[in-house]
């Protein structure tokens, strides 16, 4: 391209070149866009709701527990002597997913042997905080769980 | 190095903010990207001549559009590779999850329907183009001396492509896939002596099961691509070495 007074002068050929390059970029973007959108995982459905229907009352037997998802986070509900107790299933130590030990009637973390009681209080092990408590409401025979606050 | 003194610095005198800005604009514009590739990198690696030699390689006069089928097969293979890699991001090769993950790709993943459909139809087209390419080579007698080895490499590529089709067919794990593979893997059992072994080897067990799915997935995304790449390199290397055959 010719230089004139320090500014670039656009020639006919240069203009056509720009148009061609633009078309190439446009086409490439057309191919790249679906690929980029494909690679980004879609939003999770289910468990994203503010309040989650965990199941029916007689579905979770006394002394047993059930895992579910709330706001995309794993959670656990236990049928205890004093009624339902719902907790976040994410260990406060390093974020592993905790399990309900039916024999001991305690919550244990598989990673570093953290032990919690059914209210989420620390019994032993490395966790710095108790498990986050969730709110349980029984409506009809449906067990509903929501986050506090 | 002492001999490099005559190489001039390509940048404008530093310090002035305006020229730095202009430099940046020049860099992000496409023109500059080309200039960068052809200037800065070529100054170091000197690949421009090699690229030009490859792109401007003369082709004999008798070459017409029927000579495009091979290249189209290769282009379709590249598309299959790209869309295939993308599909592995979501596909789960297990009896419980395979069908669900394919449904997930088709219904929930953005443009999942597009990527999977391109992969599916690309497969059909690739076989079609491969067939046309083979017909062209056959009827031109291009397989004759001294190109016999390239014909053999081509036949291997044909077999591998069929293998891609056969193994890929099972992966959605729907009824058609399951029974198709049951019948397909039963066929070699009719062969004498080795038949039963081939059937067992293909299935990874007595029946078509999760073991078959793992096996076919491994073949489809790891083993066959590696073999195909090897034979493609041989195929292209030989055609470059020997040139396109003369008309009969």
Number of helices of chain A: 1
Kindly estimate the percentage of residues of chain A that lie in beta strands according to DSSP. Answer: 35-45%
Strand arrangement, major sheet of chain A: 3-12-11-6-5-4
**Largest sheet properties of chain B:** none
Care to count the β-strands of chain A? Answer: 12
Q: Total number of β-strand segments of chain B?
A: 0
Distance between the termini of chain A: 66 Å
Q: What labels would you give this structure?
A:
heterodimer; A: 149 residues; elongated; B: 248 residues; mainly alpha
Q: What does this 3D model show about the protein?
A:
The complex is a heterodimer of chains A (149) and B (248). Chain A is of the alpha+beta class. Chain A contains 1 helix and 12 strands. Chain A has one helix at residues 12-39; strands spanning 3-4, 7-8, 51-56, 65-70, 73-80, 83-88, 99-101, 106-108, 115-116, 122-124, 133-139, 142-147. The mean pLDDT of chain A is 86. With 248 residues, chain B is mostly helical. Chain B contains 10 helices and no strands. Chain B is flat. The model of chain B is unreliable at 1-5 (pLDDT under 50). The interface between A and B is medium-sized, with 12 and 12 residues.
Helix and strand layout, with pairings?
The complex is a heterodimer of chains A (149) and B (248).
Chain A: E1 3-4, E2 7-8, H1 12-39, E3 51-56, E4 65-70, E5 73-80, E6 83-88, E7 99-101, E8 106-108, E9 115-116, E10 122-124, E11 133-139, E12 142-147
Antiparallel strand pairs in A: 1-2, 3-12, 4-5, 5-6, 6-11, 7-8, 8-9, 9-10, 11-12
Chain B: H1 17-28, H2 30-45, H3 48-55, H4 69-88, H5 98-107, H6 112-139, H7 148-170, H8 175-186, H9 195-203, H10 210-242
Helix pairs in contact in B: 4-6, 5-6, 6-7, 7-8, 7-10
């Amino acid at each position: 391209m010719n230089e004139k007074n320090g500014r670039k002068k656009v020639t006919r050929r240069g203009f056509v070149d720009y148009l061609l390059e633009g078309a190439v970029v446009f086409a490439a973007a057309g191919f790249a866009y679906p690929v980029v959108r494909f690679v980004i995982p879609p939003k999770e459905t289910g468990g994203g709701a503010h309040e989650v229907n965990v199941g029916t009352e007689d579905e979770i037997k006394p002394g047993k527990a059930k895992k579910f998802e709330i706001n995309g986070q794993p959670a656990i509900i236990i049928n205890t002597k004093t009624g339902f107790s719902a907790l976040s299933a994410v260990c406060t130590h390093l974020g592993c997913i905790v399990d309900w030990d039916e024999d001991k009637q305690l919550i244990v973390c598989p990673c570093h042997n953290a032990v919690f009681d059914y209210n989420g209080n620390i019994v032993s092990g490395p966790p710095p905080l108790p498990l986050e408590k969730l709110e349980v409401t029984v409506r009809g025979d449906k067990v509903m769980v929501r986050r506090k606050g | 190095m002492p001999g490099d003194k005559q190489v001039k610095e390509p940048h404008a005198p530093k310090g002035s903010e305006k020229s730095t800005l202009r430099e940046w604009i020049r860099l992000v514009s496409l023109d500059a990207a080309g200039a960068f590739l052809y200037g800065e990198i070529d100054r170091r690696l000197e690949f421009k001549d090699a690229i030009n030699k490859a792109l401007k390689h003369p082709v004999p006069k008798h070459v017409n559009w029927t000579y495009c089928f091979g290249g189209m097969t290769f282009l379709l293979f590249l598309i299959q590779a790209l869309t295939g890699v993308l599909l592995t991001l979501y596909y789960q090769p297990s009896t419980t999850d395979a069908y669900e993950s394919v449904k997930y790709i088709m219904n929930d993943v953005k443009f999942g329907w597009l990527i999977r459909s391109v992969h599916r139809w690309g497969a059909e087209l690739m076989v079609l183009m491969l067939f046309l390419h083979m017909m062209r080579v056959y009827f031109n007698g291009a397989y004759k001396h001294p190109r016999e080895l390239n014909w053999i490499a081509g036949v291997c590529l044909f077999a591998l492509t069929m293998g891609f089709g056969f193994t890929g067919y099972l992966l959605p794990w729907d009824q058609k896939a399951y029974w198709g593979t049951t019948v397909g893997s039963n066929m070699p059992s009719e062969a004498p002596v080795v038949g039963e072994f081939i059937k067992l080897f293909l299935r990874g067990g007595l029946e078509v099961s999760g073991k078959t799915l793992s096996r076919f997935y491994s073949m489809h995304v790891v083993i066959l691509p590696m073999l195909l790449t090897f034979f493609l390199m041989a195929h292209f290397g030989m055609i470059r070495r020997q040139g396109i055959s003369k008309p009969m």
